[in-house]
Design goal:
The chain has 435 residues and is α+β, with helices and mostly antiparallel strands. It contains twelve helices and 17 strands. Helices cover 28% and strands 26% of the residues. Helix 4 crosses helix 6 and helix 4 packs antiparallel against helix 7. Bound molecules: aspartyl-adenosine-5'-monophosphate. Aspartyl-adenosine-5'-monophosphate binds next to strand 12, strand 16, strand 17 and helix 12.
Length: 435
Amino acid sequence: MTCLVRDSSTVKIEDKIVTVKGWVQDIKNLGGISFITLRDRHGTVQITLPKKKVEKETFKSLVTLTRESTVIITGEIQKSDQTALGLEIIPTDVKICSRADTPLPMGVVDKVNVEIDTRLNNRFIDARRPDVKSIFELKSIMIKSIVDVMTENGFVQVNTPKIVGSGAEGGSTLFKIDYFGRSAYLAQSPQLYKQMLMSTGLDRVFEISPAFRAEKSNTSRHVTEFISFDGELAWIDSQKDVMNILETVIDQVLRKVNERGKEQLDILGKKIRLQPVPYPVLTYKECVKIVNDSGIDLKDGDDIGTREEKIIGDYMASKRKDLYFITEYPSASKPFYIMNKDGTSYSCSFDLDFKGQEISSGGQREHRFDRLIARMKELELNPNDFVFYTSAFRYGMPPHGGWGIGIDRLLTKMLDLPNVREGILFPRDVSRLSP
Ligand code: AMO
């Protein structure tokens, strides 16, 4: 008789004899009969051990196992009314791959609430939980969907260096490293490189890669290493062109995740609320008013911080809008590479917020060499530190713009997770460097 290797979700009564591989989730010893719940990536299957029917050695080795040990079990399938799958496996052969130590640092199926720190310290066990595993399967589905949507829209996927000689997003969040005796940094974003690529004729590029910020703030949305999804496109008329493509991309990605990730969303008990495009646009000034109307004092020019973002998010939620752009930020609050709106003090930039949190920022870039240098000087940056970048603006640079999205924030907002760390397998923050 042939013996099939099956995952738990595909064991069928007709298989007669199967081999299953997994973790011992639970063992119940009732004297004459014992039950093992064996878990693999797809679910669980019941191994039933009637003492009289199972070979003595097999019985003994299985009932003395510890929870979360890994085993390979071959056995006969029998019908059962007592199990979810309507069947059980009576083992004929067992191979113990590794016996788990006791006590476990945390339970897998126990209902007790475990602190996020304990969970992150023991991520290898935490991610055995079907809900946690589903989050990371959805992240994979989301990234695959982004690649599909961007490629379908004519973007070329690129990779740019993560060890760099100068930062793009301000000195305060740069991680300095020793590069064979020279100063170097971990890239805060692919900003300067994706812009340089606009002068090559690869006029639509995207990148999904780690970005690093020496972010001292210990909040539920800041980490020191995150995955950035960057897009950049040339020949734009204004930042509006970038916003149009960005909302199309987000919309298509959310739809794809809803379809492709149905199984995982069901496990989490979630459904992604889809919002038709175009997304609403608020100006910075309108946001200041919304915040002031809520009783919080915010002056024109002040930063829209976490508290203010939340107020604006609540206001938009009351209009059933989860995703919305914020435009016309004061130039002073934006980096040197963003274009100023001629004759105003505003920048050609935008943020995209999702349920009261910034998930993306972008805009039209300053592509005119002289103005770019002037803007750097205005912000007290030394253009000589950026010659590798500014050179690309001297020999034919098209007008261009783009965005950067924190993938981890997009995921956590999409799933209403309370902390960005929930969406990162091994997060890095001001106090966490391990595991
Ligand atoms: P910005 O600095 O706004 O813009 O970053 C873009 C997006 O990256 C995410 N992000 C973070 N996520 C988690 N932890 C952090 N510490 C963190 N910092 C940033 C956010 C944010 O919206 N070069 C520009 C983008 C562009 O103009 O193309 C940039 O990096 O989701």
